[in-house]
Amino acid sequence: MGSPDFSVPALRALHAAGHEIVAVYAQPPKPAGRGQRETPCPVHRAALELGLPVRTPARVKRDAAEHAAFAALDLDVAVVAAYGLILPKPMLEAPRRGCLNIHASLLPRWRGAGPIQAAILAGDRETGITIMQMEEGLDTGPMLLRESTPIGPRTTTPELHDALSAIGARLILRALEENPPATPQPEDGVTYAPKLAKADGRLDWTQPAEALDRRIRALTPWPGCFFQAGEEVLRVHAAEPLPGSGAPGTLLAPDVVACGAGALRLLRLQRPGRAAMPTADLLRGYSLPAQLT
């Protein structure tokens, strides 16, 4: 049970290991692209490629027919990785070994929808994967396996996403083979990673440059970071913190912006309706205003 790219390596690993996958659950196809054609999600596409049956219910929480159909699969276990729908108690309890979740953090830190981005935003030095026995609470279930990975000073969400996805695929195979004992999550250290919105990408120049750098690395490519430059909204795809001082939002150099503490060099920008490019190239025919908002 999964939907985005993050979940695909686990599906492929389970299939390659010879597990009998009786069904793949994924979010329904959604309109995408200029033609707004109905497009299957990455897990759906991978399942079709592997010749696996796919189910795409739009909702499952209060649908008794879906609960019955799920129970009729007579499962040993359900593997869940970023599925996107909340599983109700009848579905959580239907498989003999329950539902095992591949969660992209070292629980109990960063329960919730955006753990990868939250770890970078917070400046964490490490994160990881937790294989968790699911229950009705939000990522509150007991832990079966954990594996950590470092977060470097320049790590981006796509890099961390791919590393954690690979760890998750490896750990779920171990969990199924070894059936390790479940350990309750500690009560101390619980944090929550909320679902991200486009507004989270607005850069506030009164914040320290290092915090803005983390925000750009965490929220690129989605929802993306942006600022107002005169009449235009520019997206920032890459930046780096520097020493410097000045009124927040003022240009200290053609590509350097003063922040609440330190300064930020804008390395890669995108104007509306155009492709992203190195800032040095963009500035050959365009100048940023002296004050950014």
TrEMBL record:
<dbReference type="InterPro" id="IPR002376">
    <property type="entry name" value="Formyl_transf_N"/>
</dbReference>
<dbReference type="InterPro" id="IPR044135">
    <property type="entry name" value="Met-tRNA-FMT_C"/>
</dbReference>
<dbReference type="InterPro" id="IPR011034">
    <property type="entry name" value="Formyl_transferase-like_C_sf"/>
</dbReference>
<dbReference type="InterPro" id="IPR005794">
    <property type="entry name" value="Fmt"/>
</dbReference>
<dbReference type="Pfam" id="PF00551">
    <property type="entry name" value="Formyl_trans_N"/>
</dbReference>
<comment type="function">
    <text>Attaches a formyl group to the free amino group of methionyl-tRNA(fMet). The formyl group appears to play a dual role in the initiator identity of N-formylmethionyl-tRNA by promoting its recognition by IF2 and preventing the misappropriation of this tRNA by the elongation apparatus.</text>
</comment>
<keyword id="KW-0808">Transferase</keyword>
<feature type="domain" description="Formyl transferase C-terminal">
    <location>
        <begin position="195"/>
        <end position="286"/>
    </location>
</feature>
<dbReference type="InterPro" id="IPR005793">
    <property type="entry name" value="Formyl_trans_C"/>
</dbReference>
<comment type="similarity">
    <text>Belongs to the Fmt family.</text>
</comment>
<protein>
    <recommendedName>
        <fullName>Methionyl-tRNA formyltransferase</fullName>
        <ecNumber>2.1.2.9</ecNumber>
    </recommendedName>
</protein>
<dbReference type="InterPro" id="IPR036477">
    <property type="entry name" value="Formyl_transf_N_sf"/>
</dbReference>
<keyword id="KW-0648">Protein biosynthesis</keyword>
<feature type="binding site">
    <location>
        <begin position="105"/>
        <end position="108"/>
    </location>
    <ligand>
        <name>(6S)-5,6,7,8-tetrahydrofolate</name>
    </ligand>
</feature>
<feature type="domain" description="Formyl transferase N-terminal">
    <location>
        <begin position="5"/>
        <end position="175"/>
    </location>
</feature>
<dbReference type="GO" id="GO:0004479">
    <property type="term" value="F:methionyl-tRNA formyltransferase activity"/>
</dbReference>
<dbReference type="InterPro" id="IPR001555">
    <property type="entry name" value="GART_AS"/>
</dbReference>
<dbReference type="Pfam" id="PF02911">
    <property type="entry name" value="Formyl_trans_C"/>
</dbReference>
<dbReference type="InterPro" id="IPR041711">
    <property type="entry name" value="Met-tRNA-FMT_N"/>
</dbReference>
